[in-house]
Amino acid sequence: SAQNSAGIQTLLDAEREAQKIVQKDRTKRVKDARAEAQKEIEEYKAQKEEEFKAFEKEHSSGNKKMEDDAAKETEKQIADIKKIQKSKGGKVVEDLLKAVMEVKPEVPEKMRARGQV
């Protein structure tokens, strides 16, 4: 009976030891699975980041071209305005001065019609 008790105790000890080994193995597999998942996540993130950069580069180049075209058009319009100013600027100033200096008072049409003058 003492031998049976010792044998049973040995079996129980062996079972506990086996449970510890199985638990360690499960823990290791969970850690490995987490590490693998994290690695996959980082690879996927890097891939999507590259795709985004390519998309951004492709679409921002169109904006750059539009900005350059708008800048060229603006420069052309400014040059046209300066050309007009050079050719007609003196005449405009002359006309303004003439209008200010040569005052011709006139009775407004509405007052003349009412006979207030």
Walkthrough of the structure:
Keywords: Coiled coil, Hydrogen ion transport, Ion transport, Transport. Belongs to the V-ATPase G subunit family. One of its GO terms (cellular component) is vacuolar proton-transporting V-type ATPase, V1 domain. The structure is a single chain. This protein has two helices and no strands. It starts with a helix and ends with a helix. 91% of the residues lie in helices and 0% in strands. The mean pLDDT is 88. It is mainly α and 117 residues long.
What distinguishing features does this structure have?
mainly alpha; 2 helices; 117 residues; 0% strand
Compact overview of the structure:
The protein has 117 residues and is mainly alpha-helical.
What are the secondary-structure elements, in order, as H or E? HH
- Report low-confidence residues grouped into runs of 5 or more: none
Category by helix and strand content: mainly alpha
What does the main sheet amount to? none
Total beta strand runs: 0
- Average residue-wise pLDDT: 88
User: How much helix is in the residues?
Assistant: over 70%
The fraction of residues assigned to DSSP E strands is: under 5%
Number of helices: 2
| End-to-end CA span | 144 Å
Overall form: rod-shaped
Rg (C-alpha, Å): 47 Å
Topology, please?
Layout: H1 2-101, H2 109-114
